[in-house]
Amino acid sequence: MSAPATAGAPKRPVRLLIALGALVLFGLFWGAGQPLTKVAVSTGHHPMGLVFWQFVFAGTALGIVTAMRGDRLRFDAHHLRFYILIALIGTLLPGLFSYTAVSHLPAGIVAVALATVPMMALMIALGIGNERFALHRVTGIALGVAAMMLIALPEASLPDRSMAPWLVVALVAPFCYAAEGNYMAKDAPAGLHPIPALFAACIAGALISAPLAISTGTWVDLTQPWRAPEYAIAGSGLAHAVAYSGYMWLIAYAGVVFTAQISYIVTGAALAFSIVFLGESYSGWVWGAVAMMAIGLFLVQPARNVD
């Protein structure tokens, strides 16, 4: 899904403004998903069942837009592989680990863990040749690691020290997102629009997660009267549809490393929403980690096509 270069394409300053505006908008939607996720697991709904419904709600919204646009889905081997991999590493696996982590950690802490996406994206990009080595970028990665240690190690950073191992679980999701971003930048089918692509991925993900939820007894029944967790499931799915389709578009428009900096907005929004709506509070160690993460993200420079 590369952004075509045309004579009428926006000039560099305009491209940067568009990219920054999109980064903020889609980051706010993504950040809102963190406290919604916390509410969704509050009554014991299993992550696998929640992931299925996330596919359903997001897929329904994206399917409506796809139909309105008149897009046609392609199902050759390349497209099918793309849909399935995006479903797996873009929603199913990170969703499972995020839902699991947030049931044991404050939503804001999980959001801080998500801020490691740019660092992980860069490490993967360097490994597969998508980006060039630079000392300041490696320093940014090191600061991200240090920030996670600042949360995991001090006695006052987490409400309960038994939560520390779950921080490792929370880091699986950003790794998946980083791998997905690099995969999309390297192997996405040419000319594929993000909305129908994500709609097809939601279909694939629902077909995979439904039998898993049923066979493992983790199905979430939404035919019962809805309370806050059920509304949170629907809200999370819709926020996912907006944030994720925008995320895929921004990767094509501005590059994988620039787009990975959406974690700035995701983390800030999720922390703010968690404080306001969930009443969470954090120690000075956590805020120190957030500051360290911000410096690290600054050092992971944007991709050259929007510099």
From TrEMBL:
It is a multi-pass membrane protein. Its main location: membrane. GO terms for cellular component: plasma membrane. It is found in: Cell membrane. The keyword Nucleotide-binding does not apply. The chain crosses the membrane at residues 47-68, 80-99, 105-127, 134-153, 165-185, 197-219, 231-250, 262-279, 285-303. Keywords: Cell membrane, Membrane, Transmembrane, Transmembrane helix. Residues 20-152, 166-300 form the EamA domain. The keyword Membrane applies. It comes from the Bacteria. This is DMT family transporter. The lineage of its organism: Bacteria, Pseudomonadati, Pseudomonadota, Alphaproteobacteria, Hyphomicrobiales.
